[in-house]
Target: Peroxisomal trans-2-enoyl-CoA reductase
Amino acid sequence: MSDKHPAKWGLTPQEMATLPTVFSPDLLSGQRFLVTGGSQGMGKAMVFLLARLGAKVMICGRTEEKLARTKSEVKELLGADISYRAMSIRDTDQVDALLDATFEEFGGLDTLVNNAGGQFPQDAIDFTRKGWAAVIDLNLNGTWWMMQGAAQRWRDRGEGGHIVSNVAHVERGMPQAAHTCAARAGVIYLTRTVATEWAPLGIRVNCVAPGAIATEGLSQYPPEATRRLGNVNPMRRMGSGWDVAEGVVYLSAPSGNFITGEILTIDGGMRMWGTVWPAGVPEHFQV
Ligand SMILES: CCCCCCC/C=C/C(=O)SCCNC(=O)CCNC(=O)[C@H](O)C(C)(C)COP(=O)(O)OP(=O)(O)OC[C@H]1O[C@@H](n2cnc3c(N)ncnc32)[C@H](O)[C@@H]1OP(=O)(O)O
Ligand SMILES: NC(=O)C1=CN([C@@H]2O[C@H](COP(=O)(O)OP(=O)(O)OC[C@H]3O[C@@H](n4cnc5c(N)ncnc54)[C@H](OP(=O)(O)O)[C@@H]3O)[C@@H](O)[C@H]2O)C=CC1
Model:
């Protein structure tokens, strides 16, 4: 797959239906998953992989058309039925309605995948209050409402479960993305904290932390930024949604049974070398 600024980013449905996987076809048979932001990008790759492995899948996103398209592609290419609801994770009433609908339709839930998120590139010094609040509300608050709502339902039903949140590689900070960095760090430390609090409830809580991944979401960034994204790790290429989807399955399947509070970094080594500068490299840092 090319990562040198293609006309269209991300994997095609045909690729997601046929890419090789290390997992056996019936691995997740009967397992119930809810994937936020499952209508494109990494979330959609997760949906295809989960459906291929026999899971029941509910997805959500704000745009009904993209959700419906994903459902029909999964049906056409895999013969599997997935469910969807149009909603925003930033709205607590909509979060409750989504969780209630999922538990009711599936008779329970095994894994919540918090994947929906995003931000805009900007120097931190210029953030407006509204811009800061939007990014925190989406990536930290929205993710937390989903985590807490799922955990409350599991506790009330006397059932365990698993939560995996898609954050980002933020260990070294992320210039021009301080808002998302702060939000993702919040999710990471929520994860590390409730992994302990919720262990007695039989709830495991983990994260995947991607580096630069070629997805449709990158079309929101200018070509000069996305060109740099292919050069921000020692491998000097982007990852694909499939790399992250396989990480999510590893943590959710029995392979993850003794893993909680963990952050699985899937970044081609970006935690050691490479800086994104999504809004442009300042003169001071140009070499
Ligand atoms: C920073 C990137 C780091 C690179 C990391 C590595 C690569 C990562 C890539 C990805 O994550 S790909 C996925 C990308 N997808 C998205 O980011 C899409 C989701 N983004 C959004 O929905 C929005 O950007 C949002 C900020 C989360 C909020 O959207 P919402 O619709 O609620 O609010 P808006 O009305 O759009 O904006 C509110 C407020 O935010 C400020 N703002 C928004 N966009 C920009 C911008 N491009 N530049 C500067 N400021 C922005 C602004 O203050 C807006 O208020 P108003 O000016 O509209 O009143
Ligand atoms: N691509 C990358 O390089 C990296 C991405 N990430 C993060 O990983 C996650 C997935 O990324 P990626 O696949 O690239 O993202 P995309 O932008 O391609 O997809 C985002 C998905 O989230 C949904 N979504 C956005 N806002 C909301 C909301 N308020 N409520 C419900 N659903 C929402 C979108 O649907 P809709 O717009 O219809 O709501 C879409 O389905 C995001 O959190 C992203 O920020 C982290 C590191 C790197």
About this structure: The CA atoms of residues 77 and 139 lie 31 Å apart.
